């Protein structure tokens, strides 16, 4: 099994895929957005691909094949993978569909045309409050701001433009309700739901930094069925046909509102929360699916699974973290991973988009998993120093 993995030169998941490949006996060839003039600077023997012009690198990529499948980590790599797959004749969603999935405005338009519940939206202009402003070219809720009046709109718009000067700003209704995430696989246009995550912390703004994901969902079967059915409609509306998807939605008394369906797996280290059939990782499952194996029979391991993306403690540089051993000792906690390094500058949302670390929990019930994550987080203390000003 030989899989082409399209990914940025940095990213937590590359190592996870490499480990998964060893376990399933697969070979991974990395395609990354590094400069062509650099000669294997990371020692990973990757092939260089310009994500904005992937067709120009198709010959170099093909020379490393043939491949049994293709995968992508991240939104920009997913679009590059779609073009490469079309050129090289591999299974993946078409570029037009992946582009629509990665563009908030195009996705809204396709959802609306399909009759899905979709926030009223426009570009750059306020129409009613409360509303949410979001840049079209960002992910992980970076630059996403809720505003409740005209003065807030003007301030938020200026703040987003300072982050992404060349991107338009989408303005849409704020949708109240509980928020959920869905992890799935698409095969021939049919969505296979791997997990529905509850997000127990309210995400009402003004910023939208995420924190806890817990599966299985505690929602009634009727709600979970509606989430699955709506996600399938969204996949169809976008035109996604093959590969992993990560979807976000809100549910209120009117029904399920699709926020996004990304043509990629869950980001960061969060994939570690998912274990299937005796400990199989999400990355192992994705490699097998990319190679064309039938994985429709896989199921989550018993019990509840939870991850906390550790909230950013404030603006500044992390100097140290106390309480890691105590957090690891909380019953139900499987691991504590601090990804931020000493001296690394952190920015809270909406300017920031990186978490200082992750907590992972497994327990008998979703409630117990959530409680374990909160208890472990309470053990941690981040020490911060003020960031030094940039001298120009």
Label this structure with key terms.
single chain, 392 residues, alpha+beta, four-stranded parallel beta sheet, four-stranded antiparallel beta sheet, 10 helices, 29% strand
**Strand order in the sheet with the most strands:** 3-2-1-4
Content of β-strand:
25-35%
The number of distinct helices, counting runs of at least 4 residues, comes to 10
Radius of gyration: 21 Å
Q: What is the overall silhouette?
A: globular
- Structure class: alpha+beta
Query: How many strand units?
Result: 21
Helix percent band: 25-40%
Largest sheet: 4 strands, parallel
Distance between the termini: 50 Å
Mean pLDDT: 92
Low-confidence blocks of residues: 37-43
Please give a structural write-up.
The chain is an alpha+beta fold and 392 residues long. It is built from 10 helices and 21 strands. It has a 4-stranded parallel beta sheet with strand order 3-2-1-4, with helices on both faces. A 4-stranded antiparallel beta sheet has the order 5-8-6-7, sandwiched between helices. A 4-stranded antiparallel beta sheet has the order 10-9-12-13. α1 (12-24) crosses α8 and α5 packs across α7. The longest helix is centred in the middle third of the chain and has 18 residues, at 221-238. The protein is globular. The termini are far apart. Residues 37-43 have low confidence and may be disordered.
């Amino acid at each position: 099994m030989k899989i082409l993995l399209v990914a940025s030169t940095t990213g937590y998941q590359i190592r996870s895929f490499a480990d998964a490949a060893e376990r399933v006996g697969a070979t991974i060839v990395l395609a990354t957005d590094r400069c062509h003039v650099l000669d294997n600077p990371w020692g990973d023997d990757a092939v260089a691909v310009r994500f904005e012009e992937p067709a120009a690198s198709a010959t170099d990529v093909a020379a490393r094949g043939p491949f049994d499948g293709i995968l992508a980590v991240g939104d920009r790599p997913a679009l590059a993978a779609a073009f490469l797959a079309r050129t090289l004749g591999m299974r993946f969603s078409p570029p037009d569909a992946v582009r629509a999935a990665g563009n908030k405005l195009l996705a809204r338009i396709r959802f609306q045309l399909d009759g899905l519940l979709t926030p009223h939206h426009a570009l750059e202009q306020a129409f009613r409050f409360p509303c949410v402003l979001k840049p079209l070219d960002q992910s992980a809720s970076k630059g996403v701001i809720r505003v409740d009046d005209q003065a807030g709109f003007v301030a938020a718009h200026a703040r987003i433009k300072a982050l992404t000067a060349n991107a338009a700003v989408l303005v849409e209704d704020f949708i109240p309700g509980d928020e959920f995430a869905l992890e799935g696989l698409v095969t021939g246009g049919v969505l296979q739901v791997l997990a529905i995550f509850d997000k127990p912390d309210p995400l009402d703004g003004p910023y939208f930094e995420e924190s806890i994901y817990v599966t299985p969902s505690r929602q009634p079967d009727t709600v979970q069925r509606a989430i699955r059915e709506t996600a399938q409609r969204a996949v169809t509306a976008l035109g996604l046909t093959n590969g992993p998807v990560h979807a976000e939605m809100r549910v209120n008394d009117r029904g399920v509102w699709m926020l996004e369906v990304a043509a990629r797996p869950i980001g960061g280290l969060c994939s570690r929360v998912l274990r299937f059939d005796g400990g199989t990782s999400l990355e192992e499952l994705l490699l097998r699916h990319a190679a064309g194996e039938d994985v429709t029979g896989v199921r989550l391991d018993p019990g509840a699974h939870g991850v906390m993306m550790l909230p950013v403690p404030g603006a500044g540089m992390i100097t140290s973290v106390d309480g890691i051993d105590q957090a690891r000792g909380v019953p139900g906690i499987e691991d504590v991973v601090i990804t931020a390094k000493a001296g690394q500058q952190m920015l809270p949302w909406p300017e920031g988009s990186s978490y200082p670390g992750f907590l992972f929990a497994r327990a008998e019930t979703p409630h117990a998993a959530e409680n374990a994550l909160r208890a472990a987080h309470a053990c941690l203390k981040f020490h911060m120093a003020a960031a030094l000003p940039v001298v120009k």
